[in-house]
Amino acid sequence: MTAVRTAASRIWWYVRELTGETAYERYVAHVRKDHPDAPVQSRREFERERTDRQAADPRQGFRCC
Amino acid sequence: MPEPATTDTARPERKMTPKSIVIWTLVALVGATGWGVLALSRGEEISAAWLLAAALGSYAIAYRFYSKFIANRVLKVDKKRATPAERLDNGVDFHPTDRRVLFGHHFAAVAGAGPLVGPVLAAQMGYLPGTIWIVAGVIFAGAVQDMVVLFFSTRRDGRSLGQMARDEIGPFGGAAALIAVFVIMIILLAVLALVIVNALAHSPWGVFSIAMTIPIALFMGVYLRILRPGRVTEVSVIGVALLLFAIVSGRWVAESSWAEAFTLAPSSLVIWMVVYGFLASVLPVWMLLAPRDYLSTFMKVGTIVLLALGVVVALPTLKMDSVTDFATNGQGPVFSGSMFPFVFITIACGALSGFHALVSSGTTPKMVQKETQVRLIGYGSMLTESFVAIMAVICACILEPGLYFAINSPAGALGPTLESASEFVKGIGFAITPEQLAKAAEEVGEQTVVAKTGGAPTFAFGMSEIFSAVVGGAGMKAFWYHFAIMFEALFILTTVDAGTRVGRFMLQDTLGNVWKPLRDVSWKPGVWLASAVVVGGWGYFLWVGVHDPLGGINQLFPLFGIANQLLAAVALAVCTTLLIKSGRLKWAWVTGIPLLWDAAVTLTASWQKVFSDDPKVGFFAQRDVYQKALDSGAESFGTAKNRDAMETIVTNSTVDGVLCAIFAILILVVLADATRVCVKAIRNPGSAEIKEAPYVESKIVAPAGLWPTAEEKAELAAAAAVAGGGSSGDGSSGDGDGTSGGTPVAAGKS
Asked: Which region ranges are annotated with the description Disordered (chain A) (predicted)?
């Protein structure tokens, strides 16, 4: 049973990392560690900025044929 | 510059243990047996299992030995040197990413429709030429290019290929590289759009399902923007469920009175594509592009895994000959020209693809956690893509050869009816009856499968055979066919959208030098104008491709192949120059030989396309033949049924021929400039300067390969102990919490 649970949690971790769902958590951790006094954006603001950045420079994350 | 000193990472290998000697001998035997069966079977049908054995055995040996040699002896990757992700970590684009996650990212970014299309077209010469090139090409050229570019870009804070060309070769070579990227983008988008137009023409089921992806993506976009920001996984699952429903409901639409509204001729589809391409590229990213990108990544990874399982479970039999006569006589209907050089430019993605160099420089290097991981991410991802190409070969070659040629020959040659198509196939030495053609179309729920060129329908057909053999039987065949079409259409449309944006960005950047406001990417009129230019560019070639009496794929695919391999030549030239400039002349052959091969292939192909006397191969010979016919007042000639069509061919051949010549000149410019820099560096090693980011010691401890070695496990445990307890820190031991992103020391835990 624990083996199944571990496997499931590993897959869940992988999927979330791959889809970029963890970007916000990573950002919060980064701000907390390196700039403890800086304000942290809300998830909504952060995700907005993230997609808008892609619009400003579409070469980021470009996919091949 | 003197050769860099050997690093700790690259110290001489220990002796192999008896156990690993036994294992690797067995792997070598499996691969050798596969190749042996492929080489010795003549005239009898063999199982696809042998093809898989040959490919997988070769990949394993190449990864274990050759890529390790390149990483340790040639590049001298250094596990103690901090990567840009560690030094410049900003939690956004620069952040150390777990190697397995980055492998997934990189693979999803390099693998698209390319490895599914080229091998299918090349199957007209039999399964053997394509397979040999895919396996040998990836091992010695494609994967090497991806890995070496990734390494050098990582050493340069993730600089792009164009910037590296300018920095390390010079402004001349850099400018040529920039022009090459732009032109290639236009041709690439046109060819990919053509593949989709051919697959969707006269197919109400297909058109309805693909059209439904737009509202689905819009819904996902709103969900992510407003309802639940950032919840990508849940919205993707919802999206995929809706997508499957759209495929199922396509059949109902095709069988209802709405069918007419969704039955579109190729020329109407071109107009829809162009309008769509323009709108999609000026809409905000969050509305259409981002959500569709999630959908297409889910579908891509899921389908490839399913296909691999399906091939292994079903183990279908290859019906195509191992080598057909078209390999030597160059008269194949799918594309003209003989095996050398045309197989090597038709199959780009999956063997050697210059486009990958754009992904390997720029995005991925900013996320590499450890230099030692470039082997897994660069070489490993490319081997995986190559495996996808092998599956495409299998999908094409399990079809009856007669059916394959009926699907892939140009419409002009096949004629208007099933009888004429059957006659044509007979004429080139294969057999299929009109009844078989009608039955094949009915099985997959299409009006016809004749002249569905471009590779996607053939691939979908083969995939539906494999899947229906495993799940659902013949009754599911139509579903699986449309599933495969949807899967290809989805990421081609995403590429059309994203590619138009990249093209526009480059155009604005360049034109901004002339007139400043154009560079501003938030100035709407500038954005619209630049988008219109880019869409107009690929739209022109798409229109031409759809209306070309000689067959658009037949004419345009070689151009796309030459363009892609030209980009590979630029990438390999940059790599070779860098190896020489950094004092590694004795290792320059690692990228130098692939470069020479690639240059020989590309230049021979361009030469033949420009100067060949055979009107089937040479663009200008083709032009002359039709011009002469026009001058003589003929009303029809060859596949051109009237004077308008003849004039179309004259114009198209001229444009295509001139483009080919431009590509060849660009290659020569880059090669000449790179040679100049290399000769200088060899004559006067002291003068060579490379623009590498300075050395900073790395604090991250992370394994290099997919599974940590015993030694790496000990290092991870030691690092975790220093960090104050916690788990053993090895990435493979419970990653459930997943919150420790880019923390140094225990990065293995992230």
From this structure: 36-65
